[in-house]
Amino acid sequence: MTSITPNQPSDHSAAEGMDRSYSRPQTVMNVTWTAIAFTLLGIALLPLLLVLSYVTVKGIGRFNLELFTGQIPAALQEGGGIGSAIVGTLITVALSTLISVPFGILAAIYLSEFSHGQIAEWIRFATNVLSGVPSIIVGIFAYGVIVVTTGKFSALAGGFALAILMLPLIVRSTDEALQLVPQEVRWASSGVGASKYQTVLQVVLPAALPTILTGVTLAIARAAGETAPLIFTTLFSQFWSRGLFDPTPTLAVLIYNFATVPFQNQQDIAWAASLVLVLFVLATSILAHWATRKSLYNR
């Protein structure tokens, strides 16, 4: 027979101890609040899951080679695709990225590393105000600056409008990324004889680069889904883009135009374009999450 020493409690007594621990008020409250938190999380994610499921069901049926290579169909035309709209979206977003990223990163470097006192506070305040401006107002502004000046709708005007929308996101995310780099890193760089500019460009900026890329990718995802600014700037065309200074089709405007038409083929194209746009945004969000995991200094 197995003897039980005084210092070795039996299984029965251990089970009683566990039962008592689960019956404690504090343990019951922890389990209750955990269950409530998971329930509320599920409720918050439910609309997203419903939207993704509905768009997938409605749009997956039109996924084929013609969808990505065909021309945008006319009202009574059968078949067709959204290839030109995909290319137009990539062109417009690329232009906005080329415009906004250099200005946004340089502004954030100034705010984090070189500015002092009230100037930095006023710039951050102006950035927050700009991030809250409705996109349709930005579209009207771009229309007055680019379209009226050049006399034509174009991908360049659309890229300019989207760049304005992307700029505050890039400035804020880059500013926060630079502030995440510990001050000791700057002191160590200065201690070995590096200048202020060398410290920022060769030490601080590379350390914050993964988090900066996160802000850039999220800004690109937002720009790709904007519709109102593009209605005033790029307009729309059913043909492939011929240059930066011509009307350019985009996915967002295509969805806006085809979603309410009475023609079934164009409605199906709109659902397929919606799914493509959702997948693009999802891919950029995954890329942003992956870039954040690579950051050197996460608090």
Shape: globular
Q: How does the major sheet shape up?
A: none
Q: How far is the N terminus from the C terminus? A: 56 Å
Percent helix, as a range, is over 70%
Low-pLDDT residue intervals, each spanning 5 or more residues: 1-5
- Rg: 27 Å
Strand portion: under 5%
- The pLDDT mean sits at 84
Structural class of the helix and strand makeup?
Answer: mainly alpha
Number of strands: 0
Write the element-wise H/E pattern from the N-terminal end onward: HHHHHHHHHHHH
Number of helices: 12
Give a quick summary of the entry:
The chain is mainly alpha-helical and 299 residues long. 74% of the residues lie in helices and 0% in strands.
List the helices and strands and how they pair.
Layout: H1 11-22, H2 25-59, H3 65-69, H4 83-114, H5 118-131, H6 135-150, H7 155-180, H8 183-191, H9 196-224, H10 228-233, H11 251-258, H12 264-293
Helix pairs in contact: 2-12, 4-7, 4-9, 5-7, 6-7, 7-9, 8-9, 9-12, 11-12
